[in-house]
Amino acid sequence: MSEPRVAGILMVITGAFLIIPAVLLGIASIILIPIPTLPSTIVWALTVVVIVLAVLNLVTGFLLIGRGGEAEVRTLGIVVAVLNLALTWWTIVGALFAALELAFLV
After folding, report:
1. Is residue 1 exposed (0-12), middle (13-18) or buried (19+ Cβ within 10 Å)?
2. What is the pTM for the complete model shown?
3. Cα angle 19, 25, 31; round to 5
4. How far apart are CA 57 and CA 7, in angstroms?
5. What sign results for the dihedral spanned by CA atoms 20, 49, 103, 63?
6. b/e per residue, 78-90, with b = 16+ CB within 10 A?
7. d(Cα 92, Cα 2) in Å, to the nearest integer?
8. Average of per-residue pLDDT values in the chain
9. What count of other Cβ atoms lies within 10 Å of the Cβ of residue 75?
10. What is the pLDDT of residues 49-87, one digit of tens each?
11. What is the gyration radius of the CA atoms in the chain, in angstroms?
12. What is the DSSP letter of 32?
């Protein structure tokens, strides 16, 4: 059931949904700048991780939509889908989208 374009669309949707927490975490970390504590450092780190994951999803999704037939792009899609599964397993929607992405790529 190899459909890289469908997996690409799911990755673009996942990346778009990840932008929302990135913005919220970014606002929270800007508010916490004057308070140099461990929680503010953790919020900054989470902000960076979520932004990187959102960009990875968006770029990989667009690559899968445009060049889904290439083996390198499909391998990148599988790697990003595994990262999604590893980092968003605690949300039902994130886990479902990551599992669907893997199912459409393998």
Report:
1. exposed
2. 0.82
3. 140
4. 10
5. positive
6. bebbebbbebbee
7. 23
8. 84
9. 11
10. 888 989 999 999 999 998 878 888 888 888 998 988 888
11. 15
12. T
d(CA 24, CA 11): 20
Tokens, residue 24: 């919220």
| Count, residues in the chain | 106
Contact call for residues 73 and 56 (beta carbons, < 8 A): no
Please, are residues 54 and 22 in contact by the beta-carbon 8 Å criterion?
yes
Q: What distance in Å separates the CA atoms of residue 32 and residue 14, rounded to the nearest whole number?
A: 27
Cβ 25 vs Cβ 46: under 8 Å: yes
CA distance 102 to 65: 15
Lookup: tokens for 69: 């037939």
User: Using an 8 Å Cβ cutoff, are 65 and 11 in contact?
Assistant: no
DSSP 52: H
Give the count of beta carbons closer than 10 Å to the beta carbon of residue 12: 18
- What is the longest distance spanned by two Cα atoms in the chain? 51
